[in-house]
Specification:
284 residues; alpha+beta; SH3 type barrels; Hypothetical Protein, Haloacid Dehalogenase-like Hydrolase, Chain: A, domain 2; 3 domains; 9-stranded antiparallel sheet; 6 helices; 15 strands
Length: 284
């Protein structure tokens, strides 16, 4: 029975903690709607969900090749807007649904930024790296979200145009640095409570599904671990409620939860600490 639960904990989202300067590999695809994509519960996205993913969306790669819970299906584990998703692979290891007409490229060791700034000057945003494909013209003062930096180019999202693309040049193109921008207003834990709560609810639902399945096939009655969220107005405390044995077995999953929260809050002025099954989030 212990082996079955060990398999469960290996399936539930292993991850490795990263340092202060966050780097990662990004996969950019011209038409994500043509792919087969699973959500964090390993359920396929509907056609509506797929069509809501913009062209040239950047997916942060977490694991380049992962076997899903059925022990058959293989996929690339990614994060998109802080949420886990799986891009399914075919028997040859290629993205399922991707054709030769679709642009796709992996950009390695990118500096993850994740902030929102305004432009200091008019500039062009290019669809393909570094400066090719259709061009979107942006004027000074335009607000953009910086996703990551690769070499001397920034990959950005233009919210009012719903367009992704590349801006070439140094930091002087941007009027306000990420550090100064977040200081322009005061943040409290109330601003992020809902997004953290929703993430923990999704994790708890995953635990419910796995434990219900394994309790059924092993005829046991293992209690389901649950993340609980408390807000005292000054900080958020995310506490894993479970037995010591289960908590120890869930260490990899907990690291994944911590990484997910870090991604969600990337670019926001909050400190995130972990200690003995408890994640503490407080303003800087």
């Amino acid at each position: 029975m212990k082996k079955l639960y060990a398999i469960l904990f290996c399936i539930i989202l292993p991850a490795v903690l990263s340092g202060t300067e966050k780097k990662g590999d990004f996969l950019i695809i011209s038409d994500p709607s043509k792919l087969s994509i699973f959500n964090q519960f390993e359920q396929i996205l509907t056609e509506t969900d797929l069509n809501n993913i913009p062209s040239y969306t950047p997916f942060l790669i977490v694991n380049r090749k992962e076997t899903l819970g059925d022990q058959i299906t293989e996929a690339i584990r990614c994060q998109y807007k802080g949420q886990t998703c799986f891009l399914l692979l075919d028997e040859k290891g290629n993205l399922k649904g991707l054709s030769s007409q679709h642009y796709h490229n992996i950009f390695k060791s990118c500096l993850i930024i994740g902030d929102t700034v305004s432009l200091n000057q008019s500039t062009n945003v290019y669809q393909k790296y570094p400066s090719s494909g259709p061009v979107t013209k942006c004027s000074a003062g335009q607000t953009v979200s910086r996703i990551f930096r690769y070499s001397s180019s920034y990959y950005v999202f233009i919210p009012d145009k719903k367009v992704y693309g590349w801006i070439n040049g140094g930091p002087s193109i941007f009027k306000t640095s990420a550090k100064n921008l977040v200081k322009s207003r005061t943040f409290s834990v109330n601003d992020i409570y809902e997004v953290v709560e929703n993430r923990l609810k999704a994790v708890n639902e995953t635990y419910n599904q796995y434990f219900e399945f394994f309790n059924d096939i092993t005829h046991q009655d293992k209690s389901v671990p649950q993340w609980k969220l408390r807000n005292d107005g000054k900080q958020l405390k995310c506490t894993l409620s479970s037995s010591a044995q289960i908590s120890e077995q869930l260490q990899n999953s907990t690291r994944y939860v911590l990484q997910d929260i870090e991604q969600i809050l990337l670019g926001k002025p909050f400190n995130i600490q972990y200690n003995s099954g408890e994640i503490t989030i407080s303003p800087r």
